[in-house]
Specification:
This protein is an alpha+beta fold. The protein has three helices and seven strands, in the order E-E-H-E-E-H-E-E-E-H. Strands 2-1-7-3-5 form a five-stranded mixed beta sheet. A two-stranded antiparallel ribbon has the order 4-6. The C terminus is likely disordered.
Length: about 130
C-alpha cells in the first residue's frame, strides 16, 4: 500500500511503499528535506510530523531528544508511514559555502545501506 507524503509549503507529493522511509521515498526528486547519513545519526533530515501516523526507527538522541520526539520532530530517514503524512522540514542545513562531494555522498549511502542490512565494512586484519 502506498502512502502520500506532502511537505508544508510545497505542492510536491511523494509516495512511500510498505517498509520505505519518508526520506527514501523522496530520494531522486527535489525536496525541501536534506539528505544526510540516512542512518539516523546526523540530524540533517529532520522533519516535524504535522499529521498522519507512522512507525519510528531508532535515531540519535544527540540529534533528536525525547522532548522533540514527543512533539513529532523526527528524522525522515527513520520515519515509516502507516498513513498519509504531512511534514514540515526542520533539519540542519549544510554549512554555507560547503562543497557537496558526490563521492562522499555515495560512500555514506553505501555504508548506511550496509548498516541497515546488518553488514559491516571490511576491517584491516592488523587492527
Amino acid at each position: 500500500m502506498q502512502h502520500r507524503i506532502t511537505i508544508e509549503g510545497s505542492e510536491q507529493a511523494y509516495f512511500s511503499h510498505a517498509g520505505q522511509s519518508v526520506l527514501d521515498a523522496m530520494v531522486g526528486r527535489p525536496s525541501a528535506v536534506e539528505v544526510g547519513c540516512r542512518s539516523g545519526g546526523c540530524g540533517v533530515c529532520g522533519v516535524e510530523v504535522l499529521s498522519g501516523s507512522f512507525e519510528r526507527g531508532e535515531m540519535s538522541a544527540e540529534q533528536i531528544s525525547a522532548e522533540c520526539r514527543s512533539r513529532g520532530i523526527l528524522l525522515a530517514c527513520r520515519v515509516f508511514p502507516s498513513s498519509d503524512l504531512h511534514l514540515r522540514p526542520v533539519g540542519k542545513r549544510p554549512t554555507p559555502g560547503a562543497t557537496h562531494n558526490p563521492d562522499v555522498a555515495d560512500l555514506l549511502r553505501s555504508l548506511s545501506k550496509m548498516a541497515r542490512c546488518g553488514e559491516r565494512p571490511c576491517q584491516d586484519a592488523s587492527t
